[in-house]
Amino acid sequence: MWHPGEKRHAGLLVGDCEAFLTGRIAERIERRSGCVPAWAWMNLLAHGTEEELRAECGTSRPPWTPVWRQARSYLAGEVLDFADACGSLSEIQLRVLAPVELALTSPPVGYDPRKWVLTVMTALDRDRHARCRRRVSPSD
């Protein structure tokens, strides 16, 4: 049987899991505490659909928009451009973005939006270069 507080905590956990798997954990954390870690901002890029990423980068943002949201909007456009040039979004999420998300969970501090953007762009560039090397290397 559920104890009085357990049912509420279970509901929060299920909601958090659902938000994580659909790429919306940043918004959930933001509503609850306001302090959103870099990995949570990465979550939409790593798990969102193409339509969700298009909506994210297509949203007109006023100048007072928090810088993390501006950074995620920018990266959503970069990820979609990369997917158009280098493969499907789901492949890139699996191969590049989810590993970056996981790596961002390790350092609990030290990421600001600029460093986050550089981290993601570096991961995409590494993947692009690795794919290009494979295409031009001679077959055995």
Give a written overview of the molecule.
The protein is an all-alpha fold. It has one domain (about 5-135). Helix content is about 75%, strand content about 0%. It contains seven helices and no strands. It has helices spanning about 5-20, 25-30, 40-45, 50-60, 65-85, 90-105, 115-135. Helix 3 (about 40-45) runs antiparallel to helix 6 and helix 4 (about 50-60) packs across helix 5 (about 65-85). It is globular, with a radius of gyration of 17 Å.
Shape: globular
Written as H for each helix and E for each strand, in order along the chain, the element string is HHHHHHH
Number of helices: 7
State the domain count.
1
Share of residues in strands:
under 5%
The tally of beta strands, per DSSP, is: 0
How many angstroms does the end-to-end distance come to?
A: 63 Å
Q: What is the SS-derived class?
A: mainly alpha
> What characterizes the major β-sheet?
none
Radius of gyration: 17 Å
Helicity level: over 70%
Low-confidence stretches: none
Look at the structure and give the mean pLDDT: 84
Quick take:
This protein has seven helices and no strands.
Keywords:
75% helix; 140 residues; 7 helices; 0% strand; mainly alpha
Q: What's the arrangement of secondary structure elements?
A:
Blueprint: H1 4-21, H2 25-32, H3 38-47, H4 50-58, H5 67-86, H6 89-104, H7 113-136
Helix pairs in contact: 3-5, 3-6, 4-5, 5-7, 6-7
